[in-house]
Design a protein that fits this description.
The complex is a heterodimer of chains A (about 180) and B (about 120).
Chain A (H helix, E strand, L loop, with lengths): L3 H21 L6 E2 L13 E10 L4 E9 H7 L11 H24 L6 E2 L3 E6 L10 E9 L2 E10 L21 E3 L1
Antiparallel strand pairs in A: 1-6, 2-3, 2-4, 2-5, 3-7, 6-7
Helix pairs in contact in A: 1-3, 2-3
Chain B lengths: L3 E5 L3 H13 L3 E5 L2 H9 L4 E6 L8 H10 L8 E5 L4 H10 L3 E4 L4 H12 L3
Parallel strand pairs in B: 1-2, 1-3, 3-4, 4-5
Classes of the chains: A alpha+beta (about 180), B alpha/beta (about 120).
């Protein structure tokens, strides 16, 4: 089981990584939503969920992003011909965003000696969707304001080895993001 | 004639982002959507100057693809650069062992990508 200090530390990592990565993917994610902000029962909303799994010796779990389709359309990074942006492109970008966010989290965990590998992302579209925690893991849920929309980040993590996940020394073993290594 | 670079990634957006950078620099860019598609298209495309390849992809991952491609002696001189969010030393070592030329960790920095491509493949 994870202790409260570990949960708080993982939440801090997830929030920091989201604040770092999402703006670089065109999603402002300025601040965390306050209570009652963007209530989920305010009416039907066309939403995307992008998620991928990860696993390693110390941890495994799932990272999920959820937000309005309009936000993902707005964040799409390439020029759009004839003002026509298809669903396939929006789905693809949502998958890449969750992949990059997990990439950032992987990098932070690796600097603490925790190695994980990820699956390929999956994306689904629907209305009034929600994420439920499994019985095995601990779900860390954060919602950000991405004015005028919102985006949710769910990080579910299980520690099968019950190791001191985040208490290891911070190392410099993990190559930094954006670095190139030539062999 | 422009040098040919093949970009292999399951994200069409990433393929296009890389393609725009390289096309604007004068390279001819070809695309494949996963490792298996990459193996087939590399075999069908003589004269490739460089392959840029993701790691986590459906059907066949990037490191498996490098191994398969490098088993063909005619690809011995073909340079393959991995472009991925992964940074595990063990994975990087696997790619090197399989015959990759380098490893670039996302997020994509266009200037660094272009400098690396020029260093490996030469100017367009």
């Amino acid at each position: 089981m994870m202790d409260p200090a570990e949960q708080a530390e993982i939440r801090r990592i997830v929030v920091d990584c989201a604040r770092h990565t999402l703006p670089r993917c065109g999603i402002a994610a300025d601040r965390e939503c306050e209570d009652g902000e963007f209530p989920r029962d305010a009416g039907a909303c066309d939403e995307l969920i992008a998620f991928l799994g990860f696993s390693g010796e110390e941890v495994c779990g799932t990272l999920t992003l959820m937000g309005p389709v309009a936000l993902m359309r707005h964040a799409y990074p390439l020029p759009v011909q004839n003002e026509q942006l298809g669903d396939a492109e929006v789905f693809d970008w949502a998958g890449e965003v969750v992949n990059r966010l997990l990439g950032r989290i992987k990098h932070v965990l690796a600097s603490r000696g925790v190695q994980i590998r990820s699956s390929t992302p999956q994306v689904v579209r629907g209305e009034q969707m929600n994420v439920w925690p499994s019985r095995r893991g601990k779900l860390i849920a954060v919602r950000f304001v991405a004015d005028p929309w919102w985006i949710g980040v769910w990080f579910e993590v299980t520690t099968p080895g019950a190791t001191a996940l985040l208490h290891g020394p911070v190392t410099a073993d993990a190559p930094p993001e954006g670095e190139v290594i030539l062999f | 004639m422009s040098k040919k670079v093949m970009v292999i990634d399951d994200s069409r957006t990433v393929r296009q982002q890389v393609g725009i950078v390289l096309s604007e620099a004068g390279y001819e860019v070809l695309e494949a959507c996963d490792g298996l598609d990459g193996v087939e298209k590399i075999a069908a495309t003589p004269g490739l100057a460089l392959v840029i390849c993701d790691v986590n992809m459906p059907r066949m991952n990037g490191i498996e693809m490098v191994s398969v491609v490098k088993q063909n002696p005619s690809n011995a001189a073909l340079s393959i650069l991995m472009l991925t969010t992964e940074g595990q030393p063990a994975l990087i070592a696997q790619a090197k062992q399989a015959g990759a030329k380098g490893w670039l960790i996302k997020p994509l920095k266009p200037d660094l990508l272009l400098a690396t491509v020029r260093k490996i493949a030469g100017a367009a």
